[in-house]
Amino acid sequence: LGAKENLILPGRATAASRETRGWKTRRSRSDDHSDWAIVRLGEPGFLTRIELDTLFYDGDQPVSASVQACYTEMENPERDSECFWYQIVPRTELNGNKLHKVDVTLNDVPFSHIKLVIHPDGGISRLRAFGQRVKEIEEEAAREKAEASAEAALAAEIGADVESSESETIEAVIIEAKATVATSEKSEKSEKSESKKDESAQRKKSKKADKQVPRKKKSKGDRDSNDGQDSDQFSSRANEILQSITSPLPKKRTRAKSRAGDDSDDGSVQTTGSQAKRSRRKAKPRNTPAA
Question: pTM for the complete prediction?
């Protein structure tokens, strides 16, 4: 009543032609009866979801359906004795005029063919299988590997650049530190030499100052004043000497002539000044009381 090739027609089914609505089998008299159809995938891949559409089949749809899958390089897996069918969708109840979406239970094994099994009979308009192709996975794996290798190479280059830049910066810092140390040493040496020069110059200046002390020239007024002071001092000294000569000595008791004689016997010599004083004392008249 409908060819199995209609299951893979593009888009959903239409009511224009009964022959292209979908795949439909005749009614069977046994409850254990089942019909099946094998579909080859466009390319081997990993399946993730299966869709069963019962559009335009309401009441004459199958009671339930299941999906199996296998991998083989042959066009017809029935001819491959080593091909094993995996059940990827368990037996699921179907409703009329409805799109049934069922997740695949085994999605880590690549498949090349799927088998739709209906229980016991009926019609299904479309069958769809979704997943990822093996080539895409291989290409993605190769791309990821290439990206990883490129990232590793880039990281190695960056690490080398970082190491080289770090080494360059360290060398630059060392060179700069050496230069600063050299400049500081030069400045210290120059400061020390300048201080020594200053000290030697100051010593020379002090020695010259000690050797050549300038004498102050006296002015005419100072010389006149000094001469006047000297003459005053001389005159005052001469006056003192004259006064000492001319001033009378204090009166003293004279001893007896025997004492004078003793003195003469002893050989003492009397000065002319003392004789003059004595003569003056003898010559001085005494005031007699009035009668």
Answer: 0.51
